[in-house]
């Protein structure tokens, strides 16, 4: 560990006279080596993406494993033989499934014959949702940053990334001018997502009443077109979801990826675990069309599309969508309008529909900044990456303001 980094480490851990004597750090290659009770004791949240069973399902289903470039490398921190912090981490040899894109950095390293991988990533695999990335009631991520960086230096890990981390939105944090972050040569990146916020709406109609006349008419027209095309839409929660509907969901989920020439990130076994262990956190919106059997003179429902959501006590998370028939406006209905309806009916405060998608703006999803930390080992690339991140933050802040001007609400800014 170089002297400057050691000095910064001691500076930001001034509460500990001897770190090695106070904290014991252990990196494990499977969640099975972590006590479930310790994990759940530290979570202190109903968010499904923080639960032990969610991460265990990712590993046991082989969705996040070394064969797929997601080698678990979880950090367990103990003090006086008691687990006080757990950090879900993964060693990676690619950048798929992260949603904070660093392919250009990897390509630059390759041009100079320098290794960009393996890299260490603190994230929920394939889940671009802001959550605490350290499970602890006594330590923050800022507290352990020097220790993880020291581990990277000792283990020849090329870079360290903490994705979609909560921020207090102070001026220094948003501009990336935190003293601690700068001292450790960690760069902050911003991305923009589009979220919906429940402002006490009594109904979907009450929500639409906040729109300008033209935007309101357009939304009503989109929703009406679904019924006009003879499509039925149903919302199913948890244990009301049948095996037949689960099977159709996974078929539609696969088709979404195959149409783009990719294999799906998550396996069938993963979703079986979800429908089993997270029944109280799942919403399946499924669309059917009536199909007449002329010979037997009966009608049979035919699935044509579905969207799967997770939810907790205050937030709905839009996660997966797929269809076997392309129907105009059906994606908007299943993925957005049904989710808004569900939030209003169940008094959920927020709706996070996933990454990207400027088409969400005119449907009332507001732009928000997300945040991530990035540290690279290679000294020669530090200035260029720091400048890239600075310019990107400025661009994202400007982009956010532009998006705010396109919101459909009567007063422009909701």
Write up what this structure looks like.
By secondary structure, the protein is α+β, with helices and mostly antiparallel strands. Helix content is 37%, strand content 24%. It has 14 helices and 15 strands. It has helices at 3-12, 19-22, 36-43, 52-60, 103-111, 141-155, 171-175, 179-183, 204-208, 213-228, 243-258, 268-277, 330-346, 382-404; strands at residues 24-28, 70-72, 74-79, 82-87, 90-92, 119-122, 135-136, 159-162, 187-197, 231-237, 282-293, 298-311, 315-323, 350-352, 366-376. The strands form two sheets. Strands 2-5-6-8-15-9-14-13-12-11-10 form an eleven-stranded mixed β-sheet. A four-stranded antiparallel β-sheet has the order 1-3-4-7. Strand 3 (74-79) and strand 4 form a beta hairpin. The longest helix has 23 residues, at 382-404. The chain is globular. It starts with a helix and ends in a 10-residue tail after the last helix. Residues 13-17 and 293-300 have low confidence and may be disordered.
The stretches of 5 or more residues where confidence is low (pLDDT under 50) are 13-17, 293-300
| Class by SSE composition | alpha+beta
Strand content: 15-25%
What Rg, in angstroms, do the CA atoms define?
23 Å
Task: Give the spatial strand order of the biggest sheet.
Answer: 2-5-6-8-15-9-14-13-12-11-10
| Helix and strand pattern | HHEHHEEEEHEEHEHHEHHEHHEEEHEEH
Number of strands: 15
Largest sheet: 11 strands, mixed
- The helix fraction, in percent, is 25-40%
